[in-house]
């Protein structure tokens, strides 16, 4: 698989590409399947429909990898937390974690309750072309913790950070719980058939440097090391958003470093490409304009050259009103400009 | 004034400190004055009450500078846009800017309509101790534009960025309008008595590197150059949040570079301290714990040493539930540890 080879820094005939949130609302086909499923969590829990939306961008765009359709919050949901996706507001936990007792109530067997995910993976892997990779994923322990503690999304993360600075042992206990659950979950995704896994640390950049390495990166590295110890052949991608100030301290046993659009690709390359493959980093809103797509692709391709170890991606997820034809244009252009 | 001297890299007896959003909801005295004023914009438009809340942190905390109490959105409001602060949601413009015609409707004399700000400045400067500086401010052209275009706060800035990539000349026309208004506004603030000015670019970090320099930093530099040409004695502070990946390209005629908590202070010092004074950068949520305040202050003070040119500040604004006694502890500790 071209995608897996690129993750492992092997030669590939061209640079593979996939897009974060490539199965999403910008696709009319996704909106149709979503309407069938009812609410968002019902779509995540329905293996057949999750399979269907996972495969849509492969057929429509021709990307080199599919990413399992799911949500990072299925873990806390299956730990027993009361999750609701509120229209116009996003995810809400009605019973946020604020103390030891709240933490003790959470189930230890979320990895078993997530069997609908493994069912979806088996279906997808059966229907997906043999040369296309299937990427599994989980949220990072810290990113999950912010939702669990705040009770939803946040601008300031102040409840989580108050815990971090005034009761760090409670936060570490929550992160421990999340880390153990994520490792078991990702190992079961691999058993079910995914060809690579990515850990999404959407809110790592909310932390100052010392806190980021203590409360987020250390747990991500632990997850990665646990996966690589059992499955050295499976690429692990770590992606923390908003940490361009911390690149010189990135370490650990993993394969691919995900780069957001706030980190110039030259700097990411200089900081980590000697040790890791790089995935990223085009600004997603360039997809509003084919001219700007071309400019962005040419720049990234020029910087990354044709050395093995680059996976083209956006620096963040697809937005709901991006034109499908521009996403298709991007995929074709990356393939064309990077052919060896 | 110690604050002004530090901005101009002159020797000072100790490192001056003030805090972004130091006049705010964490102070019971602020909440009392705010309740008198009614809504938020009424407080901004009432020179006596704006003076009162501006001075509160000077008396209560002993900071070295007062910052004018106002809001960055007074400029678009006085251009004629329909601004409302909606509880639990933040600022909303009911008539967002989406095309040339919307832009043409905006008034050119916002700087004259903002006379209540100059009245407040005169009152504050009269009541403020002679050794304490008064800082005036404005939002950056880009940051104001995001609110004007999106119609309020945003997570993705997708309408603004769609304009940036698909209709850049319209965005430049909006930025031109904002820049001209900001220059006139800041010059009038100086005429009224402020001793320094800061440009807040809260959402500069939403832009990728090339877009940041073209659509935000270039206009900030233009503002700074215009101020310095007329008032070389007035320090100009430029603060863009979330641009730690772009530090090596920072240039322009200004005095102080504001550093958020996502940029390690060592890196900010290495990148810009040869040319600019530095203001920042303690993580605001450290203020939940005196132990963590001490750790943060000791680190920053150690890195910055006792060379002239550092103004201690937070990397972002004070939060509503931070304890006042911890803010006071921070101010005293910075003064104590930096005494020459």
How would you describe this protein?
The structure is a homodimer. With about 350 residues, chain A is α/β, with parallel strands linked by helices. Chain A has one domain: TIM Barrel, CATH 3.20.20.210. Chain A contains 15 helices and 9 strands. Chain A is globular and about 55 Å long. The model of chain A has no long low-confidence stretch (mean pLDDT about 95). The interface between A and B is medium-sized, with 31 and 31 residues.
Labels describing this entry:
homodimer; 340 residues; alpha/beta; TIM Barrel; 13% strand
How would you summarize this macromolecular structure in one to three sentences?
Chain A has 340 residues and is α/β, with parallel strands linked by helices. Helix content of chain A is 49%, strand content 13%. Chain A has a 7-stranded parallel β-sheet. Chain A has a two-stranded antiparallel ribbon with strand order 2-3.
